[in-house]
């Protein structure tokens, strides 16, 4: 591995680690909820979701950094985030394929796991509309958010991360080893 590639990986890992720490500290201090989180679904029946992860298309150089923050109840998800789709092994800077935002739409399923304080593990599947800058919006993108909550001793059986399935297109899966963090918060979360 070249020094340039290794440096880029170290930089990306450090940036993700710092953002993950900020996300976790911000979520823990965020307030707005009662903080009890004993299966009550958070304030106003909403649970927060928060993530920053790196994904890949298996066997290809396509990579995806995707970030998200919002809340959900049984039927609806709100919030969204940003993404950056690029080709690994190019640059620097890496060749940009698409970048933009995404907006949460509806909840497909929620499989709650074990909680620990104000956090909970589990698997959330939502539909989203992806809005690449300068390109048409892509509707019905499936996001599967998998949170393995170590302090609670909970594992989904899947790698920690977010699986992004584009209708009629590719599926992005967590990198190996996984890069990033996902967590569900039992406090109010963010309603956008």
Précis, in short:
With 192 residues, the chain is mainly beta. The protein has one helix spanning 3-29, and strands at residues 47-56, 62-72, 77-87, 95-116, 119-132, 138-147, 161-165, 171-185.
Please describe what this structure looks like.
With about 190 residues, the chain is mainly β. About 15% of the residues lie in helices and about 50% in strands. It contains one helix and eight strands. Strands 1, 2, 3, 4, 5, 6, 7 and 8 form an eight-stranded antiparallel sheet that branches. A hairpin with a 7-residue loop joins strand 3 and strand 4. The longest helix is centred in the first third of the chain and has 27 residues, at about 5-30. The protein starts with a helix and ends in a 7-residue tail after the last strand. The relative contact order is 0.23. The model is unreliable at about 1-45 (pLDDT under 50).
Element order, helices and strands?
Answer: HEEEEEEEE
Please state the structural category.
mainly beta
Q: Main beta sheet, described?
A: 8 strands, antiparallel
Count of runs of 4 or more consecutive helical residues: 1
Distance between the termini: 42 Å
Strand content: over 45%
Please give the radius of gyration in angstroms.
16 Å
Task: Flag low-confidence runs.
Answer: 1-43
Summarize model confidence as the mean pLDDT. Answer: 82
The general outline is globular
Helix content: 10-25%
